[in-house]
Automatic annotation (TrEMBL):
Coiled-coil region list: none
Protein name as it appears in the record: GTP cyclohydrolase 1 type 2 homolog
Record's GO cellular component terms: cytoplasm
Keyword Metal-binding included in the entry's annotation: yes
Residues the entry annotates as binding a divalent metal cation: H77, H78, D116, H244, E248
Quaternary structure annotation from Swiss-Prot or TrEMBL: Homohexamer.
Length: 295
């Protein structure tokens, strides 16, 4: 099927427990944020696994694609049970998916902020894709640890070729997966970009951190009007806002390759379904440059 690209590996089977161990070696749960819900969502550690598929979200369509492709194990980035529930009956949208996977013998694991912070992880892949050297994280680095190898959310590094914000926004749009949301930028379009901070997924909580760094641009997702406006008014760097899904989906191929390399018995692949929720975008007329009196 078109949605699944499978990379054949060696014969034999692993177990759910062994695949979990590989995932947690690459994306240690200790790196996850305290509010997160990384880990095995469903599955018996003793069950056999020969095919692992990777996706960003576990939607109904993704679960169907995994089952149709004969997967035994589904690795996703976003935890389906991140927000608390009191039950998972089949009548519940989340319960419906969990029940279907259990009935079909498909284990489900979520590597969220553990994969964001790990090296290599989601943020390394995003930085590399945009031509940014994945250097130090945005989160604090413990004393005695080399910032260039430290784990943590986000990455800061030099851009391979200096360019204007307008040109860099074009690059981001060209290199990330296409979405209806697209890419937008805030700040002087002619500002030269040489050093960039990235944070995959929702990153406006890092605007204050980025304002204190020697960077020319911050790339993240889900940015809101007031935090960006206040950041720019305070002298902060220009920002590029991407679709959440687009900034994180490239990690899926990295994770699939990691598993195939770590255990030759596994056949791995990526479910190429766009799970970005936005379906309509109308840009309207291009406005004239705004001034303070226009705000």
């Amino acid at each position: 099927m078109d949605e699944v690209n499978t990379e054949a590996s060696g014969p034999g089977t692993a177990t759910v427990g062994e695949v979990v161990a590989l995932i947690e070696d690459a994306y240690p749960p200790r790196l996850a944020e305290s509010w997160d819900a990384c880990g095995l969502v469903c599955g018996d550690p003793a069950d056999p696994v020969s095919r692992v598929l990777v996706a960003l979200d576990c939607t109904d369509a993704v679960a169907d694609a995994a089952i149709d492709a004969g997967a035994d194990f589904l690795l996703v980035h976003h935890p389906p049970l991140l927000r608390g529930v009191t039950g998972v009956p089949v009548t519940h949208p989340k319960g419906r998916i969990i029940h279907r996977l259990i009935r079909e013998g498909v284990a489900l694991y979520a590597a969220h902020t553990s994969a964001d912070a790990a090296r290599p992880g989601v943020n390394d892949r995003l930085a590399e894709l945009l031509g940014v050297t994945p250097g130090a994280p945005l989160t604090p680095v413990p004393d005695g640890v080399d910032p260039l190898t430290a784990t943590g959310i986000g990455r800061v590094g030099d851009l391979d070729t200096p360019m204007t914000l307008r040109e860099f926004a074009d690059r981001v749009a060209d290199r990330l997966p296409t979405t209806v949301w697209g890419v937008r930028a805030a700040g002087d379009p002619d500002r030269m970009i040489r050093r960039v901070a990235v944070a995959s997924g929702s990153g406006d909580s890092f605007l204050g951190t980025v304002a204190g760094l020697d960077v020319d641009c911050f790339v993240t997702s889900d940015l809101r009007h007031h935090p960006v406006d206040e950041h720019l008014r305070g002298g902060g760097c220009v920002v590029v806002d991407t679709a959440h899904w687009a900034s994180e989906f490239p990690w899926c191929a990295q994770a699939a390759e990691m598993l195939a390399t770590a255990d030759p018995r596994l056949s791995t692949g990526v479910i190429d379904l766009r799970t970005d929720p936005w379906t309509v975008h109308r840009p309207g007329a291009v406005p004239s440059p705004s001034t303070d009196k226009d705000r």
